[in-house]
């Protein structure tokens, strides 16, 4: 249901209105976006073609890289094009689609990170039952549940967005459509809707972050009984995962778990989790993981 709406398009303010800075934004973010796509695509292809990367951890990493590439694609191309465009408009329908896609793939990333933490917990804390608990069928069902959960979350977000009436102005002080900047333009009292946003997006971010912290705490505690070599390998893997968790959840919690107030730093924080995290993930997982690096070398050697 779309309420009384006289606005058919929005103007995206972007990161800045300075012409010189916009050219720099175009160049920098175009490079970052292309590197993000190539890095995540390389991981997806490597895991799909490698016979050695067939464990549940890499099964989940495949979907994390896929979600990263899609998540970045929901925001980066529009930011890059608008940096050199005179007409920085986005239609109402495109804006609503962007809200849905950003929350869908962002939530998908959260759920996959939870699955990866669960996988590490079972592998380290219950090694004898690992193959039974994390069977191929179980992993497949868990990923399906992650897709369904993401769809439910993003559907809730789009329902809230579609119920916002817009009668002008139509300038979004952001570089992509999200509920927080849209709430500022709505011709109604948005206090209740903001509470719903916080209880939805904010709760998912905060609860997931707490669960992840607890799971890694349990993992670290259980490592005291492992050999030095096993402890070092487990710590290396968990450190990679924990770095990703911190750089993703920190900005998300800052944005989605607070009252309806905006700060000048909001857009830069959003850049970090919509563009920065998808860029850093493949670097973290490939540079810190010997198995992935070896599989990549074999892939390129076979191509050569």
UniProtKB/TrEMBL annotation:
Domain called G-protein coupled receptors family 1 profile: residue spans: 39-285
Transmembrane parts of this sequence: 24-45, 57-80, 100-118, 138-160, 201-223, 235-256, 268-287
Keyword Transmembrane helix attributed: yes
Pfam families the UniProt entry points to: 7tm_4 (PF13853)
GO cellular component: plasma membrane
InterPro entries in the record: GPCR_Rhodpsn (IPR000276), GPCR_Rhodpsn_7TM (IPR017452), Olfact_rcpt (IPR000725), Olfactory_Receptors (IPR050427)
Membrane topology (UniProt): Multi-pass membrane protein
Keyword field: Cell membrane, G-protein coupled receptor, Membrane, Olfaction, Receptor, Sensory transduction, Transducer, Transmembrane, Transmembrane helix
Gene3D superfamilies: Rhodopsin 7-helix transmembrane proteins (1.20.1070.10)
Molecular-function GO terms, alphabetical: G protein-coupled receptor activity; olfactory receptor activity
Primary localization class, coarse: membrane
Keyword Cell membrane: yes
Localisation: Cell membrane; Membrane
Family: Belongs to the G-protein coupled receptor 1 family.
Function: Putative odorant or sperm cell receptor.
Full protein name: Olfactory receptor
Protein's organism: Myotis myotis
């Amino acid at each position: 249901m779309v309420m009384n709406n006289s606005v058919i398009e929005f103007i995206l303010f972007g990161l800045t209105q300075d012409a010189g800075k916009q050219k720099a934004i175009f160049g920098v973010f175009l490079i970052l976006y292309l590197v993000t796509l190539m890095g995540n695509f390389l991981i997806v292809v490597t895991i799909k073609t490698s016979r050695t990367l067939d464990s549940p951890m890499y099964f989940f990493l495949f979907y994390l890289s896929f979600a990263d590439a899609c998540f970045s694609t929901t925001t980066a191309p529009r930011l890059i094009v608008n940096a050199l465009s005179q007409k920085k408009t986005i239609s109402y329908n495109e804006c609503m689609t962007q809200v849905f896609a950003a929350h869908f793939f962002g939530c998908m990333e959260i759920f996959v990170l939870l699955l990866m933490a669960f996988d590490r917990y079972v592998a380290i804390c219950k090694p004898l039952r690992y193959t039974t608990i994390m069977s191929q069928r179980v992993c497949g069902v868990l990923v399906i549940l992650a897709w369904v959960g993401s769809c439910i979350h993003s559907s809730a977000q789009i329902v809230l967005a579609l119920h916002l009436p817009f009668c002008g102005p139509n300038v979004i002080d952001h570089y992509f459509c999200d509920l927080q900047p849209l709430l500022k333009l709505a011709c109604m009292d948005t206090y209740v809707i903001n509470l719903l946003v916080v209880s939805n997006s904010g709760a998912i971010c905060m609860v997931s972050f707490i669960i992840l912290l607890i799971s890694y705490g349990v993992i670290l505690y259980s490592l005291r009984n492992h050999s030095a070599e096993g402890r070092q390998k487990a710590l290396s893997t968990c450190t990679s995962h924990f770095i990703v968790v911190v750089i993703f959840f920190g900005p998300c919690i800052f944005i989605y778990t607070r009252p309806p107030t905006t700060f000048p730093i909001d857009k830069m924080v959003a850049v970090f989790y919509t563009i920065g995290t998808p860029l850093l993930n493949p670097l973290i997982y490939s540079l810190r993981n010997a198995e992935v690096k070896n599989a990549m070398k074999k892939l390129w050697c076979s191509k050569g």
